[in-house]
């Protein structure tokens, strides 16, 4: 059975306008290499499909075994304009934990 990101990482997420920012933190230092293989812009974009309409960037934070995932045009216009239930991107962060780990 394939491992999921939730098995090796925690997430914290938030918003700024129509941009969602997700911190992905390795549970153990040894899990960081799997995060780097698994959390790529292409794989994140594929996971969310049309829900994220803009670019996806992934920034390495090697000193704390973490990644910063930034998703543009991900909230339907932003918290004050969107009709989505998840106005601030909290559910998008949790949903990222469904990503399969690349072994």
Description:
- The chain is an alpha+beta fold.
- The chain has a single domain (5-96), classed as Gyrase A, domain 2.
- The chain has helices at residues 32-38, 41-48, 90-96; strands spanning 9-16, 19-26, 56-61, 66-71.
- It has a four-stranded antiparallel sheet with strand order 1-2-4-3.
Characteristic key phrases:
103 residues; alpha+beta; Gyrase A, domain 2; 4-stranded antiparallel beta sheet
Per CATH, the architecture is: 2-Layer Sandwich
Strand order of the largest sheet: 1-2-4-3
Regions with little confidence, pLDDT below 50 for 5+ residues: none
Number of domains: 1
Q: What would you call the shape? A: globular
Largest sheet: 4 strands, antiparallel
Number of helices in the DSSP assignment: 3
CATH class: Alpha Beta
Q: Count the strands?
A: 4
**Termini gap:** 12 Å
- Structural class, from secondary structure content? alpha+beta
Report the β-strand fraction as a percent range.
25-35%
SSE pattern: EEHHEEH
Radius of gyration: 13 Å
Q: How much helix is in the residues?
A: 10-25%
Give the mean pLDDT: 88
